[in-house]
TrEMBL record:
Keywords from the named record: DNA-binding, Phosphoprotein, Transcription, Transcription regulation
Keyword Oxidoreductase: no
Listed CDD domains: LuxR_C_like, REC_NarL-like
Protein known as: Response regulator transcription factor
Residue ranges annotated for the Response regulatory domain, each copy included: 7-142
Entry-linked PANTHER family: TRANSCRIPTIONAL REGULATORY PROTEIN NARL-RELATED (PTHR43214:SF24), TWO-COMPONENT RESPONSE REGULATOR (PTHR43214)
Pfam families named among the record's database cross-references: GerE, Response_reg
Positions carrying 4-aspartylphosphate: D58
Lineage: Bacteria, Bacillati, Actinomycetota, Actinomycetes, Micrococcales
Stretches assigned to the HTH luxR-type domain: 169-234
Length: 238
């Protein structure tokens, strides 16, 4: 039996650009374009009706912009994760009804990109990305994108994330075990599961289990949000 195709929703207010994306996706045996939206509100409605796996989200659109639309789309996943807790499904914030969001931007070092990542986007692409990078990113976020991907979000996070000034705040890593803290520290540096496994002399399966537990305990949607959490908590050098 053939693997189900990855369902992609395109959100962009430029019909010609959106049409080009649709053609690229339609040409792939493992991808399927399930809809095109031209503003953020339309995107939210389509997410509810067509249930995409991945959303390609333009940042700047009339009406509701891509940052606000991303927050609305991914917020359900964060709430579900918080409700499930560590004893939930084992895939933090990753339920079938919550797609991965890839934001599209004309400027790589853009504060709006950071806010979209903070709102729950899994990755970003500049609009001059090659078809190979576009398609690879769609497949990558669907399977779990590392920050070591060529279109890394780490440099944007480093530039725009600011530690919150909270006096006498409790330890933000209190829910984590000693081993989970070690894994957390390596993840903040953008290491892949394989690199973390090599550093700590663990199997990749064990590292993956630790990553899932960390995301659940800290109520984070994914690795990108974990790094943002680390920078804003003053823990990026852990």
């Amino acid at each position: 039996m053939a693997e189900p195709r990855i369902r992609v929703l395109i959100v962009d207010d430029q019909p010609l650009f959106a049409s080009g994306l649709e053609l690229q996706i339609a040409a792939q045996a493992d991808l399927e374009c399930v809809g095109v939206a031209y503003d953020g509100r339309e995107a939210i409605a389509l997410v509810d009706s067509v249930r995409p796996d991945v959303v390609l989200m333009d940042l700047r659109m009339p009406g509701m912009n891509g940052v606000d639309a991303t927050a609305a789309i991914t917020g359900a996943g964060v709430r579900a994760q918080a409700a499930n807790g560590p004893s939930g499904s084992g895939k933090a914030g990753d339920c079938a009804s919550v797609p991965k969001v890839v934001v599209l931007t004309t400027i790589r070092r853009d504060e709006a990109v950071f806010h979209a990542l903070r709102a729950g986007a899994s990755a970003f692409l500049t609009k001059d990305a090659t078809p190979a990078v576009l398609l690879g990113t769609i497949r990558g976020v669907h399977s779990g994108l590392d920050l070591t991907d060529p279109e890394s979000s780490l440099d944007v996070i480093q530039e725009f994330a600011r530690p919150a000034a909270v006096a006498d705040a409790p330890d933000p890593l209190a829910p984590l075990s000693v081993r989970e803290r070690e894994v957390f520290g390596l993840l903040t540096r953008g290491l892949s599961n394989a690199e973390v496994a090599s550093t700590l002399f663990l199997s990749e399966a064990t590292v993956k289990s630790h990553v899932q537990a960390i995301l659940q305990k800290l109520q984070l949607r994914g690795r990108v949000q974990l790094v943002i959490f680390a920078y804003e908590s003053g823990l990026a050098a852990v």
